[in-house]
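mind reviewing these tokens:
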Amino acid sequence: MKLSIDMKSGDLTSEQSKDIIVGIDLGTTNSLVAYIQNGEPQTIISSHGHNALTPSVVHFTDEGSIEVGETAKTHLISDPDKTIFSVKRLMGKSYADIEALRTSIGYEIIDSEDQELVKIKVGNTFHNPVTLSAEILKALKADAEQHLKTPVSKAVITVPAYFNDAQRQATRDAGKIAGLDVLRIVNEPTAASLAYGIGLDREHKSNIAVYDLGGGTFDISILHLEDGIFDVLATNGDTLLGGDDFDRAVIAYWTDIHNIAAEQLKSDTALNQMLRIAAEVAKISVCNGMVYNNKVREYELYLDNPTFESLISPLIEQTIDCCILALKDAEMRIDDIENIILVGGSTRVPLVSRRLEEVFGKKPDNSLHPDEVVALGAAIQADILAGNRKDILLLDVTPLSLGIETVGGLMDTIIPRNSKVPHRAGRQYTTSVDGQRNLRISVYQGERDLVANNRKLGEFILQGIPPMAAGLPKIEVHFIIDADGILTVKAKELRSDVHAAVEIRSTYGISEEEMALMLLDSIKNAGDDVQKRALLEAINEANNIILAADKFIKQNQQIFTNDVLEQLKSLNDNLKTKVSEENKDAIELAMKELNDYSSPLAHVALDINIQKALKDVSVDDGRL
């Protein structure tokens, strides 16, 4: 009997009706959802717009509600600090990674100890790219349910081919928070190829180049197709290059002409957004053969196509360089490529097609809507997963996520559910206590954020770690699933080569009904789980900062005045209080206040200690 989940009632059903699985393109600038109708992929019109595109924009109102899409986009100028766009560019990025992006947005990005997620400050609340992406997915899910007149609980979501494991897991988490069972994360170039019908004929063998230039990201993928299996031979690209950068080039041109200083744009966020929107309109106008002439405040703005192409030509050449590098990595010549597929709204720029044709010697294929092609392909992949295309082989996948317990009882997923088998994945960890010699590694299976709600598979102890300060040991944990579904977990301390392993044969030792109940439970509790996880992560981060601040105060008594140290201690005590109160946003705010005050002090202390160390160095016989 096939079990399914009724998302409205929250019950398991045994009806034989086929599940509707939608395909979702979660994009940087726009997102959209598609499904299969009468055997053909169709996009769903956004309920707040005139086409299938839902702007990937989230706005937080003063009343505390959340708007997504076209309605949110209208607040980019009027309320820029509470209107979040280009969230996908933040996914899996550290604070240092997005230095260039921070100068062109109106909202505030906060550094985080978690290297995979930055924080976005909205008023006195803090959010991350996963929860913001979930809001976009919720809007797409609602549009699909309104259009299809039925609950939608399963989806295939696409990501760039270069997305790493953390970014893919973050996308899965966003789907779960939105109430979606994410059956598969599919590479965008693979989805685009499926939309063009490539791969549906198992007898056809070919090499394909997928040139994907969206609003915020660019990637080129070289695929080899044989027996209906897509093999990504090489990828290249730039996660911070896209149509938004074309707009920025135009803005830089205008600000240079009108002598608008960068500091003025940074302080005047409304003007910044007005110029950004004008640049986007100008780009579209000149690409359609028109000349753009408009006025923003007292500034006359003019742009024609030759000027536009001269401004963006260096950016286009960067993409061409990436194409050449990808071909080299794939060990292919230009003549080996049979098809060049264009994906992403920015490929509408005529210069893109002209340069690709000059380089590859063949005209790129843009016969499908470049904004919709990835979502259409995702819908085809969803149709395959639904079992409606019997001629296409699906590889065995893991039924539930596998991971280990981390500080605070959190589940850190290493192999997400539906990963292809055999599979290998690893992640690095460290100790949380000074001098720690042993580390217990507990292995769990399930979809909940806390291990207490998941199924324990086993555990082992990594012994003999050399005593070091907390954070110094580098412990690599690897999960390996073989073709028979047997899981082996290995742990190794990289500095000392101490290692241990355990073999777990119960990876699939769970009934289909139990599995369905676990999945239902994870989706039902996704909202509560993400709040609990966020609180525990904030507490863990705060405790690390508290320890560091206490240590800093003790070590620098001779450098700073009592007033400075008392203020630092007061802020640290405030953080301790907020941790005890267990309010995530209050903890985040207290951490920010402490970090803002302590960061300049840390630089001063470092400079003084370096100067002191240099004074203590003696020179003897010309040697240090």
Observations:
- The radius of gyration is 26 Å.
- Confidence is low (pLDDT under 50) at residues 1-17, 618-624.
- The first helix runs from residue 70 to 73.
